[in-house]
Amino acid sequence: MYLGLDLGTSGLRAILIDEAGAVLADAEAAFDVDHPHAGWSEQDPADWVEACKTTVAAVKAKAPEAFAQLKGIGISGHMHGATLIDAADKVLRPCILWNDTRSTDEAAALDTMDGIREITGNIVFPGFTAPKLAWVAKHEPETFARVAKVLLPKDYLRLWLTGEHISDMSDSAGTAWLDVGARNWSDAALAAGGMRRDQMPELVEGAAPGGNLRETLCAEWGLSGPVIVAGGAGDNAAAACGIGALGEGSGFVSLGTSGVLMVGRDSYAPDAASAVHSFCHAVPDRWYQMGVILAATDSLNWLSRNLGQSPADLSSALPDTASGPSSLTFLPYLSGERTPHNDSRVRGAFIGLDVAMDRTDLTRAVMEGVSFALRDSLEALKGTGAKFETLFAVGGGARSRFWLTTLASTLNLPLSLPAGSELGAAMGAARLAVCAVTGASPDAVMTQPETGDVIMPDKALTAAYDDAYGRYRALYPALTRKG
């Protein structure tokens, strides 16, 4: 039996599977995000540990006999977070999360240093880990002086599970300290940010062993041991493992809190200037690229809060099929944007509001605006040579047929919906545990799910969506200081 743990921004999900991938039990536990100042986003790592205790206890209660046969644990988590610990493994301050934008100036300074983009394969975004440490060095020097190790969120959870300072390649690729092509820490990149190699965790591949569950936890959980904890993965790499998107051309589009358009690559082909992320995959000798928008379903959640209607109610008021673009344009830059603009200061807008419009028009425009933002990512990915042969649609937003039909016609790509399978980062993490324990090939374990419906682009509408996308693209300069 294998346990997959996915540490999300708002909660932790755990699933227990057998070696064939059948889900035997699952559980979730929520926690909060703190925003003490504008642009700040933090969490207490102790909340992650408590959530892990809660979900493991729930999984064990649901399937006690299966849980007693646990042999491996895989972990995934939200990327880029800066969890700072001292020489005694004590947390020095709340973790600075991926969507925290306080280190915009520090990111810009690091990004201009000679060789950084060439080493890391990426722009240094404000959400990455390295600029966060530069911010701490400047604004909290006493804390910075005590930093013995910097751990990514899932790897702090690993520290509690195993007592080891270990990370994997896919998660570490989002720090701006990793040589992504060589799959190793870069002394030059570390030095540029005032860091040292001894402050970094040991690196392993995601499908390799990354520590053993502590004996005290084995005893507490009623396990005979040993229980291997896999290297694991950052959340998007883990989601790719869960849906079988490993090789060239296989990918997914995720309508989650943020929006992701991801594709697997068999070789390393970065293009940092495009604001496309080029990261190590969770399996050896493979990479992946993705475009990221910061507010996908978060845009709908924002609208929901302001209209006093649930996201489900807003979505249900729309038809099942899109009929062409609206005259109202929404730009979803509520917290800035990553791909393709790398602009943490730009903010969103509605353009073309009319007195006759109602909440349905606003909802439709939000879904179209997110779809256009993902089209931005598609164009940026195509510029790196990426091709899309299989594209699954996942995430909470994929429950809306209107959104899916809008997105398919905007991207001019078919979107496949998985049929009745447990997917996502928790499944990917559990699959990585299978590989770490058994030595099985990732290609044999991380197969694609059976396809249910396929949402085809409406060829009668693609030209209209192309025109609307062109208008959307032309509006960005008006919202930024670059305009």
Structure description:
This protein is an alpha+beta fold and 483 residues long. It has two domains: 2-231, ATPase, nucleotide binding domain (Nucleotidyltransferase, domain 5, 2-Layer Sandwich), CATH 3.30.420.40; 244-483, ATPase, nucleotide binding domain (Nucleotidyltransferase, domain 5), CATH 3.30.420. It has 18 helices and 24 strands. Strands 1, 2, 3, 5, 13, 14 and 15 form a seven-stranded mixed sheet that branches. The radius of gyration is 22 Å and the shape is globular. The mean pLDDT is 94.
In short:
The chain is built from 18 helices and 24 strands. By secondary structure, the protein is an alpha+beta fold.
Q: If you compute it from the alpha carbons, what radius of gyration comes out, rounded to the nearest whole angstrom?
A: 22 Å
Secondary-structure arrangement, i.e. CATH architecture of the largest domain: 2-Layer Sandwich
Task: State the end-to-end distance.
Answer: 56 Å
CATH topology of the largest domain: Nucleotidyltransferase, domain 5
- Proportion in β-strands: 15-25%
Number of strands: 24
